[in-house]
Amino acid sequence: MRLDLRNSSAAMFVALGIAACGGGGDAGSSGGGDTGGGAAPPAATIDPATVGTISGMINFAGDAPAMRAVDMSGEPDCAAAYTGGGPMTQSVLASGGGLANVFVYLSGGVSGAPAASGAVTLNQENCRYAPHVLGAQAGQDIQITNSDNLLHNINASPTTNRGFNISQPRAGITSTQKFASAEVMVPVRCDVHGWMGAYIGVVDHPYFAVSGANGSFRIANVPAGTYTATAWHEEYGEMTGSVTVTAGGSADLSFDYSASMAGADVPLGEPLVVGHDGAHTHAGQ
Amino acid sequence: MKGLRHPFLQGAIVIAVGFVIFKYVIGYVLPVFGIASAPVPASVVFQYTLTVLVGVLLYMSAEESRWEKFREPLKRTMVDHDRRRLRGVLMVAIPALVGWLAYQNVKPSFGAPATLRSVHPAPPNQITYRGLPIELRGLENPLRHSGTLEEHVAVGRAIYTKNCVPCHGDRLDGDGHFAGAFNPIPADFTAPGTLPQLTESFVFWRIAKGGPGLPQEGAPWNSAMPAWENILEQDEIWATIIYLYEQSGASPRTWEAEGEEGAEE
Amino acid sequence: MRLHQAVRFAVLALFLAVPAAVAQDAAAGKAVYDLWCAECHGAEGLGDGSAANAMLPRPRNFSEARYQVRTTGSGELPTDADLVNVIQNGLPGTTMPGWPNLSDSETGDVIAYIKSFSRFFGQGDAPQAMDFGRDPGGGPAALEAGAAAYLALECEACHGSTGRGDGTSAPTLEDWRGLPIRAADLTEAWALNGGSSVEDIHTRVLTGLDGTPMPAAIDAMNGGVVTPDEVWQLAHYVASLGARETPPLLEVVRVGRADGALPADGSDAEWEDVEAFHFPLGGQVIEIPRNFAPTVDGVWVQGMHDGSDIVLRLQWNDPSRSPDPLWDEWQVKLMGALDMDGADSIALDSLGAPTLRPADAFTVQFPFEIPEDNERPYFLAGSARNPVYLWRWNSQDGVSAARGRGMESFEDLVDDPVVGDASWADGRWTLYVRRSIQSEDALSFTDGVAIPVAFSAWDGSSAEMGKRASISSWYYVLLEQPPSSTVVVTPLIAMLLTGAFGLVLVRRAQDRGRA
Fold it and tell me: How many CB atoms lie within 10 A of CB C34?
């Protein structure tokens, strides 16, 4: 594994600095950013005829705890976007027997994966991260955009990877970041708005998904085979299951969470809170 | 060379050297060589210099020919026609100097008043530790005779780091992050005038009884040193003392050396 | 063009030379580390040394290689020169001192050892400093542009509109471990952990302080929010917000004699012309429970009198106006993070909010009588035998006088004529106190005499109460005497007498010479 998480524009500066050329950074460029990826399986070409789909549900039993109101009065522009009872915290979003924002990924049985391509996006809108839980492949570009015309900072605190903390004081600013190694999960926080939190699940392959509002998820283009799958939720912790994918087929996979699992051990990349007996402070929304 | 034999110049040199010694050597040069000392107050410097002046005059006037020779340059300046310019300058400069000195004396001053404080006051023969008497005279560090040095240093290091670092600093030089808030400033254990000059029993006394345990001449009301007997066990203080000496590379003064000096006195 | 190339080459050579100049012997570094560093940073470099929880911010965990003071981009490793800088100069405002006593080779060795704690070093290319461009220079126009950049980058969200670390986000800030952390007070640049020069500040703005909420503004600059020149001007502006060096300690507050009326309150414009004296405050670490990480680190004191009354204005920075429920989270987190040294913990209610929100408080301390000799009451709130005379203020009850016999033993002096008022604005308290110079029951202020005075402060939102205070030693107040003719007359008489004496001496000598 090599250290390779860099702010790409900063990397541009390093690359260009000594030559005294100056110049702006094209945020999407790969300059200096992908020297690593040693931990990722070698890139493999997948035959489309041999792939299938995993689709399933994150079920939720019991009564979801009431979410607390978030005080956005310090940012009236954001607060105005929420009508009715909002804004509320988002740590447990359960509706119709499904649980949203569960990160599901294949944790065993994957041998080889296509190289990362394209980019995933993390948006800051109305003083919230959208999405709240996000998956990315190791080495894949993560485009972080500010849609609010006010200051956010994006402070990622991974342990296996290098972190970053970038300010975006205006709407329209985009930063491109990437993580070199698999890490479930990387907590992301906005220090300006203490309520803003997000999680990025980084895995070595593209076989991951995040459950939607009704608890459903779908992972496409999975090579036929038998896998171990893991689900991760910020309040209720991890569950694992097994799934067999056949060529052209659609495999079912579901996880059953329940309200009684509250207080479960929620693993992050490595323990983040040291010597601090207060509340778990990276829980975000 | 011939000029040096002139009594007037000799007298002037003796007075100048005396002044320099009182004013600077005692207060600022001696500490460089590890001899505990402090700047001499201006009034005392004035007194001493005056004493030297009287001594010089007495010596010069003891013999008629020397006195004549000593007076000669003064007389010539007052009388000779070719020194009238120098005479004029002195007639203005000396009253001006006196006037300036007088002004310095009477002008309103906003400096801190001089406070005298004995940095290493004489220790008592006996102290109490949480009410129990301990004889200081001849007292050795009991941990020197039990356990290993490494153990004691490790214990002392942890105690020092939590309790002493805020004032005395990680480097033991009295420059901890709170040091600037305290006056007098915390002791510098790396200075040659501190640990090497002291027996371990003296250090134990200072740690156990702290500022409140100082005698009057040590200005106990000013010292921010806690009385650690309220917080630490005796063995913890002894271990901290071992750490101080090991970490600073100094050796404690022994009772034998203390006895010799006592005999000299 | 030639010259440019030569300069470029020289810069390049310098870059390559710096790491080479530092010796790298991790084994030798271990000896240095174990001797001087391990007790705070831990034997394994995890930042978990024996005294770590008495320190906020905590000692660095070297295994994470997350460094605040760097010349490299956010999230990148520091250069060796960055590490040398921190080891030699320390991190002002924290418990990390500089280590100028280590030789260059010892420093190099210990850096090699520190790097060996982390898996991140030694992989890929050596970290390279960013190109920070050229400083276009300071001046009034630059400061104006810098102030605009301060707003454009929304620095005030955390640092506050005047830079005292009192921004709206300040109460919820936490470091990478979830421990509470202050937004830097930019008006006390001498305590900025990355240094107080314009270059230092510029570098911190563009690289951020990893592990803290301070982000790198590089993408904002590249995104056009501010230009590279404006980032430099911002650094000039921040450097202009306060003194770069610790203010000199003058020990004596000069209480001038007013010609007309005394200032009527703390906001009176007349104070602008009165000299202010700075006194550093440190944590109360003498009696248990001790305060290892105090909020208030100094106070500015001004004084005036008119022969019948004395007024003092005291100003100190405190980002929270306690009690304030917005700081509940801070108070709870701080109590969980810091070694409270046995202080009674403040209970939490069912919603996790503290059941007690202490007030902010301040005390001005005098002896009851002007000491005739050196002796005075014990500086730490007096003693049973020799009490102190106190002007006590807190944000809920205002100003009152008391007799103090130790830090938690007070007796109100209800008839004392001291009055006062305090106001809080932009992260700073301004306390105004007034009393008659003469008093029958307590200290009478005699002009021309240095009168001992000491100060203490409490920040309620950091659960500071009782002995958990910031304190000072004894200093002095000195009331200016009415103008006196002796100041002029005495030297004149001395000059005249000396001159006359000289004339007589010379005349006599000349007469005798002729005779």
Answer: 14
Average pLDDT over residues A160-179: 95
Non-local (6+) Cβ contacts of B255 within 8 A are: B138, B140, B199
Q: What angle do CA C271, C274, C278 make, to 5 degrees?
A: 105
C145 at the A interface (CB within 8 A)? no
CA–CA distance, B244 with B153 (Å, rounded to integer):
8
Quote the pLDDT of residue A18.
34
Taking the Cβ of residue C63 and every Cβ of chain A, the question of whether any pair is shorter than 8 Å is answered with no
Cα angle: C68, vertex C71, C73; to 5 degrees? 80
Domain annotation covers residue A228: yes
Which residue is listed with tokens 């296509």? A114
Q: At what angle do helices C228-239 and C140-152 cross, to 10 degrees?
A: 100
C204 SS3 class: helix
Measured CA distances, C304 to B17, C245, C439, C479 (Å): 45, 27, 17, 8
Residue A28: inside a domain, yes or no? Answer: no
CB contact under 8 A, C219 and A175: yes
- pLDDT tens-digit profile of B184-209? 999 999 998 899 999 999 999 999 99
Residues of C (176-235) whose Cβ lies below 8 Å from A: 176-179, 207-208, 210, 212-220, 222-223, 225
| Residue B234 contacts residue B129 (beta carbons within 8 Å) | yes
State whether B91 and C481 contact (CB < 8 Å): no
Indicate the Cα dihedral angle C502, C503, C505, C511, nearest 10°: 160
Q: Which helix (H) or strand (E) holds C301?
A: strand C298-305
Is C35 part of the contact surface with chain B (CB cutoff 8 Å)?
Answer: yes
A146 inside domain:
yes
CA separation (Å) from A236 to A229, A241, A260?
A: 16, 16, 9
User: The domain that contains A94 carries what CATH number?
Assistant: 2.60.40.420
To 5 degrees, how large is the angle CA A128–CA A133–CA A137?
130
Q: Chain C: residue nearest A175 by CA?
A: C219
CB contact at 8 A, C434 and C461: no
CB-based contact B182 C51, cutoff 8 Å: no
Q: Which of residues 234-253 of A touch C (CB under 8 A)?
A: none
**Coil, helix or strand at residue C504:** helix
Residues 1-20 of A with CB under 8 A from C: 1-7, 9-11, 13-14, 16-20
> Residues C247-257: pLDDT tens digits?
999 999 999 99
Q: How many CB atoms lie within 10 A of CB A47?
A: 10
> CA triplet C108, C113, C116: central angle to 5 degrees?
130
Q: Which of C73, C169, C178 sits opposite A282 (nearest CB)?
A: C178
User: Is residue C105 less than 8 Å (CB to CB) from chain A?
Assistant: no
Instruction: Enter the pTM of the model.
Output: 0.84
Per-residue pLDDT, C50: 93
Tens digit of each residue's pLDDT (9 = 90 or more) over C211-241: 999 999 999 999 999 999 999 999 999 999 9
Domain spans of chain B, in order of start: 3-106, 126-264
The whole domain housing A143 covers: 43-261
- C450 backbone dihedrals φ, ψ, rounded to 5°: -75, 120
| B186 prior amide bond cis, ω within 30 | no
The verdict on ipTM greater than 0.85 is yes
Query: Could you count the other beta carbons within 10 Å of the beta carbon of residue C342?
Result: 10
CATH 1.10.760, applies to B126-264: yes
Number of independent structural domains in chain A: 1
* A240 band by pLDDT with thresholds 50, 70 and 90: very high
**Pick from B166, B182, B181, B171: which is nearest to C293 by CA?**
B166
pLDDT, average across residues A237-258: 95
| DSSP class per residue in C373-401 | SS----TTT--SSS-EEEEEEETTTEEEE
